[in-house]
Amino acid sequence: MTTTLDSSTALTSQLGLATTIVSEESLAENVRKCAENGVVLPTFAQLADPSKIDPNITKGVDKNSPDSRNLFRVHWYNDMNGDRVSVPDHVVLPKALTGVDSPIIVAFGDRFPMITAHKVLAAYSCLAPRVITGQFNPSTQRAVWPSTGNYARGGVAISRIMGARGVAVLPAGMSQERFDWLDKWTSDPSDIVRTPGTESNVKEIYDACNEMQRDPKNFIFNQFCEFGNYLGHYEVTGRALSHVFEHVAKSHKGLRLAAFTSATGSAGTIGAGDRLKENFGAKIVAVEALECPTMLENGYGEHNIQGIGDKHIPLIHNVMNTDIVAAVSDRSTDELDVLFNTDDGRKYLVERRGLDAKLVDTLQHFGFSAICNTIAAIKTAKLLNLGPDDAVITIATDGADLYPSERVKTMARRFKNQFGQVEAAEVFAEHLVDVQTDSMIDCTHRDRNRIFNLGYYTWVEQQGTPLEVFDARRSQSFWQGLRANLPVWDEMIVEFNARVAKAKK
User: 0.90 cut: is pTM over it?
Assistant: First the structure.
């Protein structure tokens, strides 16, 4: 028996799945705010296929400014200047770098506007349904964005555009570059809430948000249980990655998509895997940190692969459709970040490994989680014994420009500020040539059930999610049923924009 959610219930509103107007008063205020700020909302169909967007909308608009027209850049079809491209920017990594025959395709997330990370899509996917249904009122409520960094930044950016006050909640130990960005985009220092710990302290983020939620002026957009996050990536990221693969396959006869790797984080991005599995039969590989192997070993610990979370199973993770779990060490991501982003590291890759200089230049677009996803792709290719006709696709959430402060720490801690050709060779050998298939699970039904059940402690016992809703997620019909929301939301966005246009007159 499959549980469905009535769109009128409070629970549906809590999970971001309302498809009817919840408050006409708040909706009217959202219309007024958008008219005042010149905001037009893109539909999910437009973000999935930007050819449906008038290219003149963003002409002459700085892609990193808080301009409402940048909402029409919240998709994968931008270049670094913010100009439209016909195929999402990507790179196909060769065997000379990865050590495997399988082509590894990486789509670049730092082309997204304002925050140079794809998490702005997740933020929009969570906020837009709340706006058009009148669940959130920007005049009386603050939009609170719990995150380990990029989602909070995306939420603050979208909130500012919408004329709302955005609050970032993130661990104090995250990269300094994240806080530098937030200092510039928030209007009040109190809108940056630093919780204890680092990437591994998601529970502390939940605790802070639960405390803030006692004040009705705070509206929590919890990406870990907001199904708009899942749906936005299923539709927008899933279709973009499908397009990337089809483009690569045109010049590689007989190429098949064998797998998609994605660090779980909030489990939004991995939702794109559901579409890739449907379209191409690709296996879905969930990635986590070896220092805190939650899915792998019900583990504990602390890691520094910023943006991938741990110690919990997000409510929006379609665990029962996951095929493989792979764990990657943050030592690998830290040290490869140095290899990819120092002069000596680049010199080694070009002169000693024979890599094309232009290819090496693309590695600056790999942030920590991108490196993690790529290593997981290599591990997957080895585990499945993939050949040259078996592609693995993944994403680079953000670029190296968000981690210089972390690189300084790695240089001091791991290399004593001495990184030359010898160190570069050692890093390359250990973290690329010698990648092993340990710390992986090729999931059985029992493995999936165990991982699924881990979420009970967070969502039912700690956060109060009804058990029947928690259990409904075991069935693929539950996830397939969610997709009916997308065309309904798009119709409501069109109607909302019409009301905004009328209010401007």
Answer: yes
